[in-house]
Specification:
Layout (H helix, E strand, L loop, with lengths): L1 H19 L30 H5 L33 H5 L29 H12 L11 H4 L4 H4 L12 H11 L1 H6 L4 E2 L29 H8 L9 E2 L1 H5 L9 E2 L11 H4 L9 H4 L27 E2 L10
Antiparallel strand pairs: 1-3, 2-4
The structure holds heme C (HEC) (10 copies).
Length: 325
């Protein structure tokens, strides 16, 4: 059976750990100064046997699956940068000297640092643990970024006690993000969307959830740079550029989804008329007498202004100044 096979594997790992994992020289606690800040530091020590101590209780029979951590990068003892090469479980969970003691009936267990925004440990302390090793350029704007500000913690997005962190896979990432961002979940269900729900694009290809210089956690310093990374042909340069295209693609397009075609925010002619007056066209162009029904229609059916102004993003034709060709 799958389950017992797995328990068996865990057991082997567990035994291997018992035999071989006894403490390596304790490296410095990443958040020593703030370690278990509600406890009295003097009385609390690290467990003498590191992970072995913890695994006496938190083993494969425990309701919380702790052991898959050993299949992840954090569990690689051969890599000196990992928590398991240092103070092991306590690198992240802090001093467990009191917590690991057996309790008498009715006695409360001493607390130990826990993760997730529902955990008792304050968000700042939790994030400090993770940031002690992950404070690189990707997270340079974490501090004061919108997620940090809103009290979202690293562990709300990342799961460290699983073989594969769902945040790092396309499909499961989307599920995780939209579990909090319901409006965006709806936007990606519209008729015209970026193909996020088919796992062809991830939220993190456009956003850096750890914080950015741009607004709305957009990865690139300005939004057009983002769009050009995948729609390079829209960068130009054009002989005849269309001013709003150069300024910001999101003037006309919704980045997530739209009920109109081509992710447009409004349907032409309304889109175009939000900036352009309808005057100025040669009157013949507007004479709809030849059209079915005989009603004059300056937008000449479904593609509207684009029937004629087809080079809407810009033109490289010598006489494309009116974006006609
Ligand atoms: C003697 C058994 C025992 C040992 C040893 C032990 N724990 Fe626990 N641990 C428990 C029990 C029981 C709970 C659940 C009760 C509770 O939350 O107080 C728990 C809860 C936890 C929690 C959740 C705390 C929370 O507030 O949600 C974490 C994290 C944890 N243990 C980590 C560790 C680590 C790390 C070690 C090793 C330093 C360790 N434990 C050693 C029995 C043990
Ligand atoms: C003692 C240092 C240390 C601490 C503390 C630490 N990590 Fe890591 N973490 C690492 C190392 C080392 C890697 C592997 C990096 C690599 O391979 O380049 C890693 C990898 C990761 C990865 C990528 C995993 C993958 O499969 O690619 C994530 C996500 C991560 N850590 C999140 C966290 C979170 C969340 C916390 C806090 C709960 C945390 N880390 C705490 C050292 C640490
Ligand atoms: C809102 C969700 C979210 C939060 C909060 C979050 N992350 Fe991430 N993290 C992600 C996503 C998404 C990726 C994958 C990025 C990619 O695919 O380019 C990632 C990737 C990573 C990685 C691996 C790749 C890399 O950038 O090195 C590490 C390490 C990491 N995060 C650490 C952290 C730490 C530390 C914190 C807390 C300070 C944190 N994350 C908070 C969503 C989050
Ligand atoms: C990289 C940091 C890190 C390391 C190392 C680590 N943990 Fe955790 N632990 C976490 C985070 C973050 C959570 C929150 C849930 C998750 O991400 O899977 C957690 C959750 C837990 C829980 C469940 C707590 C609850 O709320 O019920 C227990 C128990 C636990 N860890 C024990 C251990 C033990 C035992 C070890 C050593 C074998 C260990 N942890 C090593 C970061 C770590
Ligand atoms: C635990 C819940 C949670 C998760 C998971 C989460 N977020 Fe957020 N996110 C928030 C909160 C809370 C805010 C603060 C502003 C708000 O309420 O919208 C926010 C803000 C944002 C903003 C900025 C909104 C603005 O108006 O400036 C973006 C962009 C964003 N998140 C993207 C993501 C992406 C991408 C992911 C997945 C990688 C993600 N979020 C995962 C809770 C979450
Ligand atoms: C093709 C790129 C792209 C993808 C993919 C994408 N976003 Fe966005 N998102 C943007 C841009 C650009 C903005 C800024 C829009 C603006 O300034 O009007 C934005 C804005 C946001 C905002 C701020 C509120 C709003 O609607 O303006 C949130 C929250 C958000 N995105 C979440 C997500 C989540 C969650 C995912 C994945 C399910 C995701 N985004 C996927 C480009 C993208
Ligand atoms: C990570 C790559 C990526 C980024 C970044 C990106 N796109 Fe896209 N875009 C795509 C893909 C893939 C498609 C779907 C193409 C297809 O279905 O043939 C698409 C389609 C579109 C479409 C056509 C939609 C339709 O319904 O026909 C528009 C419009 C569009 N993107 C605009 C933008 C804008 C504006 C930005 C910047 C905010 C942007 N894209 C950023 C990859 C990207
Ligand atoms: C002035 C409004 C406007 C602006 C600004 C704009 N677009 Fe468009 N875009 C349109 C219209 C209208 C269509 C539909 C064209 C059609 O149906 O023939 C379109 C279609 C698209 C398409 C799908 C069809 C194609 O041509 O590949 C992509 C991709 C696209 N735009 C990307 C972008 C990018 C990237 C930017 C910013 C550099 C941008 N757009 C700025 C109006 C605009
Ligand atoms: C956000 C405002 C805005 C929107 C929306 C917009 N435009 Fe423009 N458009 C401009 C500006 C500004 C110019 C440059 C005018 C100038 O140089 O005198 C321009 C130039 C043009 C030109 C060339 C005019 C000339 O005199 O050279 C045409 C044709 C045009 N737009 C058509 C359209 C069409 C068709 C749409 C709808 C798909 C549209 N525009 C949407 C702002 C906009
Ligand atoms: C039947 C084709 C056709 C349609 C449909 C059309 N245009 Fe034009 N448009 C033209 C032609 C041809 C010119 C160039 C006129 C000239 O050079 O004097 C032009 C010129 C323009 C100019 C430049 C104004 C100027 O004085 O030079 C703008 C702006 C413009 N059109 C916007 C629009 C908008 C917005 C729509 C939709 C509401 C639209 N056009 C629909 C053919 C069309």
């Amino acid at each position: 059976m799958y389950h017992s096979a797995r328990s068996y594997i865990y057991q082997i790992i567990y035994i291997t750990i018992l035999l071989s994992v006894s403490m390596s020289a304790p490296a410095a606690d990443p958040v020593n100064s703030q370690n278990n800040n509600t406890q009295n530091k003097k009385e609390i020590s690290y467990s003498k046997k590191g992970a072995d101590t913890c695994l006496k209780c938190h083993d494969e029979d425990n309701e919380y699956p702790v052991l898959p951590l050993f299949y992840t990068k954090h569990g690689e003892r051969g890599d000196a940068r990992t928590p398991m090469a240092g103070l092991q479980c306590e690198t992240c969970h802090g001093r467990g000297g009191d917590h690991q003691k057996k309790t008498k009936k009715g006695e409360k267990k001493a607390p130990i640092r826990a993760f997730g925004s529902k955990a008792w440990t304050p968000p700042a302390e939790q994030n400090k643990v993770c940031m002690s090793c992950h404070n690189d350029h990707t997270r340079a704007n974490w501090q004061g970024g919108i997620h940090e500000d809103a009290g979202v913690v690293c562990a709300d997005c990342h799961t460290v006690h699983t073989r594969s962190d769902p945040m790092l896979q396309a499909r499961t990432q989307t599920e995780k993000c939209v579990s909090c961002h319901l409006k965006q979940r709806a936007e990606f269900q519209r008729t015209s969307t970026h193909p996020v729900r088919f796992d062809k694009i991830r939220c993190s290809q456009c956003h850096n959830p750890h914080g950015t210089f741009n607004e709305k956690l957009v990865k690139t310093p300005n939004t057009n740079e983002l769009c050009y990374t995948c729609h390079a042909e829209k960068r130009g340069p054009y002989l005849w550029a269309h001013a709003p295209v150069q300024e910001d693609c999101t003037i006309c397009h919704s980045p997530h989804g739209s009920v109109y075609g081509s992710l447009l925010k409004k349907i032409p002619p309304l889109l175009c008329q939000s900036c352009h007056a309808s005057g100025g066209h040669p009157s013949t162009a507007y004479n709809g007498s030849g059209l079915p029904g005989g009603t004059p229609n300056q937008f000449l059916l479904s593609k509207s202004c684009l029937n004629c102004h087809s080079r809407i993003h810009g033109s490289n034709h010598p006489s494309g100044v009116k974006l006609l060709r």
